[in-house]
Amino acid sequence: MLFYNLANMEQLIVRVADKEKAEMLMKILSALDFVSSVEVTADKTNINDKAG
Questions:
Q1: Residue 47 pLDDT level (bands cut at 50, 70, 90)
Q2: What is the dihedral of CA 11, 24, 30, 12, to 10 degrees?
Q3: CA dihedral sign, ordered 22, 26, 7, 43
Q4: What is the rounded distance in angstroms from the CA atom of residue 36 to the CA atom of residue 4?
């Protein structure tokens, strides 16, 4: 069993508009031995809402 020290980890936030490409990127990242976890969240915010 592997334990990770979360205090010494880096976190990346990547936003991908295309769902298929996002799934492909998630699979690639999950396959890397130095990636401890990959999480997916959906951003439902409309871009026009941020501009105002």
A1: low
A2: 0
A3: positive
A4: 8
Does the pTM of the predicted model rise above 0.70?
Answer: no
Task: Give the type of residue at 16.
Answer: V
How many Å apart are CA 20 and CA 25, to the nearest integer?
9
CB 40 within 8 A of CB 22: yes
Kindly give, in sequence order, each residue whose CB lies less than 8 Å from that of residue 11, ignoring residues fewer than 6 positions away. Answer: none
For tokens 């490409």, name the residue.
Answer: 21
* Cβ atoms 41, 35 nearer than 8 A: no
Do 41 and 49 meet the contact criterion of CB atoms below 8 Å apart? Answer: no
Residues in the chain, total: 52
Provide the terminal-to-terminal Cα distance of the chain, rounded to the nearest Å: 48
